[in-house]
Amino acid sequence: MSRPLIAIDGPAGAGKSTVSKALAERLGLDRLDTGAMYRAVAWRVLDQGIDPGDQPAVAAVAAAACLEAGPEVLIDGHDVTAAIRTAPVSRAVSAVAANPEVRRQLVTRQRQWAATRDGGVVEGRDIGTVVFPDATLKIFLTASMEERSRRRGADESPAGLARRDRIDSTRSMSPLARAADARVLDTTDRSIDDVVEEVLSWL
Ligand code: C5P
């Protein structure tokens, strides 16, 4: 690849979406929000009345899904851009994302996304560790728990956020983890511009 592939990982509310959008714009690259993909599958699971813990049924939803995660998120013909940010989806998504077969399905799609483009900015939990271990640049964003809860505001309770972080960090397959060669950036007291300038200086 002649253009960079930038992997951005970190817990919920660390600033991944804001930073990845700004970076993609500055660099003229496409951006993939892999969390939106897991959220869309979780939405479809709930929509079909399936128990998020029913692993074979949830895996079948992921395997059959016609999924598009651009600025608009579409699954099986439904525009779920707004619906995937609601509380029921936030509560269900970590169980769906801990399903090994779902991860296999979505990681394949994430690699296909990158293969059809020249570079990109990809955000998630396992991008630098599992999906793109050879990324040009790996960033692991962090922020204090107080600040992360403040950023989520009314969308998610501090307890919900902490629960999601716990499940995401302790699952057996591809847990949220910093790649050994990732640069760690604490965004707690930093402006977006400041963070983006620092990341650009690493390229
Ligand atoms: O990034 P966001 O908070 O929207 O992600 C929603 C959920 O999707 C996470 O809590 C996690 O369970 C899952 N996820 C994941 N791997 C990724 C991206 C997101 O497991 N690469």
What this model shows, in words?
There is one protein chain. With 203 residues, the protein is α/β, with parallel strands linked by helices. The chain has a single domain (5-201), classed as P-loop containing nucleotide triphosphate hydrolases (Rossmann fold). It has helices at residues 16-27, 34-47, 55-64, 87-97, 100-115, 127-131, 145-152, 158-170, 192-201, and strands at residues 5-9, 31-33, 67-69, 73-75, 78-79, 120-124, 137-142, 183-186. The protein has a five-stranded parallel beta sheet with strand order 2-6-1-7-8, with helices on both faces. A three-stranded antiparallel beta sheet has the order 3-4-5, covered by helices on one side. The longest helix has 16 residues, at 100-115. The structure holds cytidine-5'-monophosphate. Cytidine-5'-monophosphate binds next to α2, α4 and α8.
Q: What portion of the residues fall into strands of 2 or more residues?
A: 15-25%
State the strand order across the main sheet.
2-6-1-7-8
> Bound small molecules, which ones?
cytidine-5'-monophosphate
For the report, how would you describe the main beta sheet? 5 strands, parallel
Mean pLDDT: 96
Radius of gyration: 16 Å
Low-confidence stretches: none
Q: In which range does the helix fraction lie?
A: 40-55%
Structural class: alpha/beta
* CATH second-level architecture: 3-Layer(aba) Sandwich
Count of the separate structural domains: 1
